[in-house]
Amino acid sequence: MYQVIDGKKISQEIKDELKEKVAAMKAEGVERCLAVIQVGSDPASSVYVNNKKKACEYIGIKSLAYELPEETTEEELLELIGSLNAREDVNGILVQLPVPEHINEDKVLLAISPKKDVDGFHPVNVGNLSIGRPGYVSCTPAGVIQLLKRSGIEIAGKECVVLGRSNIVGKPMAMLLLRENGTVTVCHSRTRDLREITKRADILVVAVGRPKMVDAGYVKEGAVVIDVGIHRNENNRLCGDVDFDSVAPHVSAITPVPGGVGPMTIAMLMNNCVEGCR
Ligand code: GUN
Question: Which residues have any ligand 1 atom within 6 Å of their CB?
Answer without folding.
Answer: 94-97, 119, 139, 265
